[in-house]
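Please check what follows.
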Amino acid sequence: HDLEPSATEKFRLGCCYVTAMGICGLILVAIASNLNVVAENCGSDFVNAGTVFIGRGLGAVIGTLVSAKLYATFPGNETIASALFIVVLMLIAIPSCHSLRTLHFYFFMCGLGTAITDTGCQIMTRKIFTTDAGPWLGANTIAFGLSGAIVPLVEMTTDDLYVQYLILAALSLASVVSLWLG
């Protein structure tokens, strides 16, 4: 809508963007943390499966490049939520992956989704808060950096890779829902 958001709406949206940025940081740590187990599922080892990060990087570059057009064409919150939903699907799929080629695709999609989310959170934070965006942009960056600490906490609760990834997917899905509702 074209109406100026209220202070409460701005705060709520700011919190949604901070949370979404946190999910981006969480995903980065999560996909690296258990790569040895995921690689074994694919009949490979950690060293040979490390090339999946090239796929993730390529997805991140493409995601960043297409973001300007996406956010100029589609509503920002829905675009962020859609990109994060792609990541949720990848989190659900990764533990059952048995093909290194497919794993490359999943990591590519994680890179694409997190880059579109990251860029969108910065764009939308700036759009919503205008000249007061500085502290919120800083909070986005802090959330990205600190959220990775959640991954080891989840890993300490269970050794089951599927359960770990379902917990991370649920956290990510909560962020998607908050953006769709926002």
Remarks:
- The chain has a mean pLDDT of 94.
- The chain is about 80% helix and 0% strand.
- Residues 94 and 102 are 9 Å apart (CA to CA).
- The radius of gyration is 17 Å.
